[in-house]
Amino acid sequence: MGNPIRTAMDRIYSIAIGGFMAVFVNVLVFPIWSGEQLLKELVDNFNLLAAAL
Predict the structure, then answer these.
(1) Total domain count for the chain?
(2) What residue intervals traverse the membrane (predicted)?
(3) pLDDT (tens digit, 0 to 9) for every residue of the chain, 53 residues total?
């Protein structure tokens, strides 16, 4: 058996690094959350949801 504290810390670090990378990509690389594009995608998603129901 390994050290459970070490395993927990490794997992927390992995989650933190993954979260940071996700935020970095969404904010700096593909900032689709701004302005009209967000509204258009939101409306499109609601239309797809309505069609599925």
Answers:
(1) 1
(2) 12-33
(3) 689 999 999 999 999 999 999 988 888 877 766 677 778 888 999 999 999 98
